[in-house]
Write a structure and sequence with these properties.
Largest sheet: 5 strands, mixed
CATH class of the largest domain: Mainly Beta
Shape: elongated
Order of helices and strands: HHEEEEEEEEEE
Radius of gyration: 36 Å
CATH topology of the largest domain: Immunoglobulin-like
Structural class: alpha+beta
CATH architecture of the largest domain: Sandwich
Distance between the termini: 127 Å
Length: 188
């Protein structure tokens, strides 16, 4: 009985495909699918990772008590950052990029100011550049992404000084014999 049911269902499906309405609907569906192919291929090309960007330069300079680090890239980019301690350091990962280091695996830039000991640049994973700021002290920092040329600007500042609160000592109230009364209007 099951065999007969499946045969009749298959027979119905075959007879439906032979009808003019079904063939027209199938042709329209096929035409729509074929029309989507170029659009889908273009979307896939855009979504596919492009040629990795180049980290073209890393520069630094002191600005009074702070230090500025500028990381230049060859195009628009995204980044992630984190702070690590023991020793103190801040790192920036730039996906879809490669450092312009030539044959060197790690490039070290000595700095030696009060906040920043050195800068290390390397490709840590395929198409990910890591820039590490090795700190002398636990510095505060801000990072800003700028364009024209595309760059990441990191500003290091000394740690905030805690507001010292001197212990409050209350002065004793003056003794009654030492207190001078305010002049009354009649005395003036």
């Amino acid at each position: 009985m099951r065999t007969a049911t499946s045969i009749s269902i298959r027979g119905e499906a075959v007879s439906r495909l032979r009808s003019p309405k079904t063939r027209a609907a199938a042709a329209a569906t096929l035409a729509f699918a074929v029309a989507l192919v170029p659009w889908t291929a273009a979307s896939a090309r855009q979504a596919a990772p492009s040629t990795p960007l180049r980290v073209s330069s890393v520069r630094f300079w002191p600005l009074g008590e702070s230090t500025r680090v500028v990381i230049e890239l060859s195009g628009e980019f995204t980044y992630r950052y984190d702070r690590l301690s023991n020793p103190e350091r801040i790192y920036f990962d730039i996906p879809n990029s490669r450092p312009a280091l030539g044959e060197q695996r790690i490039h070290t830039i000595p700095v030696g100011d009060t906040l920043l000991q050195q800068i290390r640049v390397s490709g840590t994973q395929p198409n990910v550049t890591r820039v590490v700021l090795d700190l002398n002290v636990r510095a505060e920092f801000t990072a800003a992404q700028l364009a024209n040329p595309p760059r990441l600007v990191v500003e290091l500042k000394p740690p905030a000084r805690p507001v010292s609160q001197a212990p409050k000592t209350e002065s004793p109230a003056p003794k009654a014999s030492q207190a001078k009364a305010a002049p009354t209007p009649a005395e003036t």
